[in-house]
Amino acid sequence: MANTYEPICSEEPLNNWNPLQKLPKPEPGLALVFSGERQPLVAFTQGQGGLTRSEMFWGTYNLVYKVDLAEHPLEFTFEIPCKGDAYDFNAVVNFICSVREPIKIVERKVKDVNKFLQPLIGKALRDISRQYEIEEIADAENSMNSEVSRQVYHQGFNIRDLVIALALPEEVRTSIQKKREIKNRREDEGDELKHNLEMTRKKMDFYVKMFQGGHLQLLALQLAENPKDMNIIVQYLNEQKPENKARLIRDLQQLGDVEDIIIQEAIASIIYNVIGGTESSTRRLGGGKNDNQKNSDYDLDEEDTYNSGKSRERPKFDYDNDGQ
């Protein structure tokens, strides 16, 4: 597609015109613009006639310009910055152009549409593009269409079928796409974390009610079916005051005397994770080598494992795996 044309087709002197000559008349698609000393420019298009013989003879018009009124499809390309000048848009401007005011075109001596309009359009695009982020291409294009149409119209041209298309270089699009993917992934991870935290809170409330209601056997059965909830129980017990924690462990240890092996194993697992697993503590819950050995209460005094002065690392809450 062309990017320019010459709106002024010719410039002809009238000094040698005589009354016997044929009067200049505008042809289809052309305007005649007459120029003379101390005379305003005057233009005629097809159907408007032209100067009379008297005006030609006695007047002081010495030049006639032929101005192209036909429509010409044009394409201009630009590199324009986005907001903050972080990236450049590739802008392609397509439109159909024609002269609207022949006198204005002659006054400004427009001989190359590209040289005349491209700087003007480029400035309008840059002024607007700096107001928009790269994600706002559609809004930027709409604003540019309105402004470019207005600017070109005021320069004496008609403009129609204007299309302004903005794009980013391939490497920039790739970089932006990667950043968006990272952002989306982080948002998804954040949503998943919020969901897991909410599920953990609900489970914590559920198990706390079991502890407070004394439903320890039901708690052990629930934990046996959902072993990944162990961290919730351990967290709850480790957050208790020492005396309350000791009482809850004694209650659990006594519950370990039941014959149900599933409950025994669940209780043993809780105590193992809270106070640390030892051979002696496991035997006390019925898991020792001597099956005839009588289970004894877990005595949580100052010499007990959890309160013996030995520091034990607090179990970490597994947010990622909980409730899966």
3D architecture notes:
The protein has helices at 53-58, 102-107, 113-129, 137-154, 170-213, 216-225, 230-238, 242-255, 261-275, 279-287, and strands at residues 8-13, 30-36, 39-45, 61-68, 72-81, 88-99, 157-167. With 324 residues, the protein is α+β, with helices and mostly antiparallel strands. It folds into 3 domains: 8-68; 72-172, Tetrahydropterin Synthase, Chain A (2-Layer Sandwich), CATH 3.30.479; 201-324, no CATH class. Strands 1-4-2-3 form a 4-stranded antiparallel beta sheet. Helix 3 packs antiparallel against helix 4 (137-154), helix 7 (230-238) crosses helix 9 (261-275) and helix 9 (261-275) packs antiparallel against helix 10 (279-287). 21% of the residues are buried.
Number of strands: 7
Element-level helix/strand string = EEEHEEEHHHEHHHHHH
Q: How many structural units, i.e. domains?
A: 3
Lateral arrangement of strands in the main beta sheet: 1-4-2-3
**Residue share in helices?**
40-55%
* Low-confidence residue ranges: 277-324
Rg, Cα atoms, Å: 45 Å
- Report the portion of residues in β strands: 15-25%
Sheet of most strands? 4 strands, antiparallel
The dominant shape is rod-shaped
Q: Overall mean pLDDT score? A: 77
Look at the helices and sheets and give the structural class.
alpha+beta
| Gap from first CA to last CA | 61 Å
Count of DSSP-assigned helices: 10
